[in-house]
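cron nightly-structures :: item 1 of 1
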Amino acid sequence: MLKSKRIFLVFALTMFMATMLIGGAVRGADGDWALIWADEFNGPAGSGIDRNNWQVEVTANPANAELQAYVDSINNIYLMQDPDNPNNRVLVLKAMRDTSGGREYTSGRVNTQNKHLWTYGKFEARLKLPYGQGIWPAFWMLGGNFPTVGWPNCGEIDIMEFVGKEPNLVYGTLHGPAYNGGGGLGAWHRYSGGFTNDWHTYAVEWEPNIVRWYFDGQLFALRTIDDLNGREWVFNHNFFIILNLAVGGEWPGSPNASTVFPQYYYIDYVRVYQRAGGVYPPYPYRNLVAIKSVGSGQYACSDSYATPTNALIANRGSASTWEMFELKDLGGGNTGIICVQNYKYVSVTGNSQLVGQAETAGPNETFQVINNSDGTKSFRNTGNGRYVTVDGNRNMFATATSIGNAEKFTFENKNTSGGATPTPGGATATPTPTRAATPTPTAPPAAKVIPGQIQAENYDAMFGIDTEATGDTGGGLNVGWIDANDWMDYNVNVQTAGTYRIDYRVASTSTTGRVDFRIGGTTLASTAIPNTGGWQTWTTVSANVGLNAGNQTIRLFASGGGWNINWFSATAVGATPTPTRAATATPTPTRAATATPTPSGTLPSATWYLFNQAVSGVVPAGENLQTAFSGSTGWQPLKTITTTASYWYSTTINGTYKAGNWSFILWTNNPGTAVNVTVEIYKVNADGSGAALLGSQTVNAGTFGGGNHPTTFTFSNLPAVSLNNQRLLIRIVKASGVDLTMAYNTNDFPTRLITP
């Protein structure tokens, strides 16, 4: 699913099942699609799903700030008679208001892991989608090696995602190392008829080094290994299928007063095909280029954060995926320009601006490429007959009547993996189809090592930033032009799990800067950047984070803009670090005075409710967490969330919470404006000393829902937490905005922590 996904299912990888044939299937000629597996969901109406094909996921701790619990219930997952065909049944995933799973809603999620896995094939489903604000159905695939390498290294193929707030769009996306969450490689398809009233088919054709997406048999997106610009292609091993219906989350937002419940996700069938004989068509050549403006000296970018969205701007100092374009031969000497970032044609809009927004090519999407005498290129649009130019703000328009430097460009070849090659006459030489070799994993790019220092300009992927010569000690480059929502990704190898002090070398002329340290979409620390007095006046700021061992991708995300960064470093600080926090007091880490007992066994998942009884003998002072549900009702008692932190302590605990996702659900009012709230989870000694930060999340809780509403803070993929006669500590503080009113110690509005 498109977004920052932390997957919570799965335990073991079973044997390869791609050779499993459906009885009676007839094999065609080598290279033809042959049906090898299907579930038509034609069991008795009212019965459950076939457990030989599917396993049902159960969790009260979903990813992506979703609001539902996934349950194994015939009320949520069942077969239904097709009202339009007496000989047909369909699978139903049903989402409804129901707190029996420990959340505000229950729903269904099923997968074929441990049942059926495949490498390559055509994966198709016939679906009728639910609708409404906050509703999020998906049909997708996850790498079978997820249990050993984790997400996103296992790879993810989103065949279909739909969010109810966009009733005429569906999405298809790839996620992998350094291209995941909001940075996944995706494309949308628009259908004016919507997706909820009629049946439609959704499919991908996944073959070596290429994935194609189809809606009702119509191709709407294509991705190849070249689109990754050197990043790792992880789609060369077994994957399994997932069907789920989520409620709420970071991408769709929460349901509102217009959302109808229950909601129904109908699945008529899921079918899997593979090429007969293992023979795949040749890998296609794509004329991929980076386009550099002679006038500005910068690369053109299709910018998702521009106005209008995906406008072309020649303002990038380097070229990655967002700066890549496919020059598509339209015949007759005409060329279409496809933005690799969203797989849309560049269109000349009503004001003649270039925007990557069209799914098909008409006159406004058709260009002639002019070969200038100095070796540069120019573009002339067929629709208005004007040349493409770069204006003083580096925006690109088709308005010029003659060619000067502002209308000249150079091309940089970005097709690095081969494929069929073009012949001198412009046609493509097609090699003979070949049998697919046994897939072998692609070696990942060399990871940077933690502990150690990483130069900011050595990112593996980025959005929105640029580099310049630095005036800091040591010279070289720094990253600059950092605006809010820009980011840089770094592939790292953490040599030893533990807590690390992250030092950032930064410069700024404002107080708006803030850097979030993220792993897989989860913010582990958010650090304010001070006004240093100049863009080349450098200082160091720090934060503590807990890291797992192994390969992973760090994202430095600018939650506030207006700063430069030269480098960052990670230094191990031991098991009891001093958390670095501004403005409000935090527990002072100290080593316990006496030995504590050894943890006794694995602890089950628990829900800790926030109560209002004072805990004695702890510093700082705080109130209690307990696992018993409150007997109180109504919107009380209340606490105001301000810049002065509040604390809640559990009883002392002996044992280990397993690795996984933690969630915190905060019930507040809605002041009608953004309010960023920080929730932190610590492990502390019985007296509150020895604080070890387990996770930190800052979320806008002010406008997350209508009226009194819950906001979910998701702490993804935390390592196992062992407690030796120690407590869990929750710290809540306002990061920005107006004060919020919080409810707790009530069974109507239970603010609570949920452990794995």
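cron nightly-structures :: done
The longest strand covers residues 721-736.
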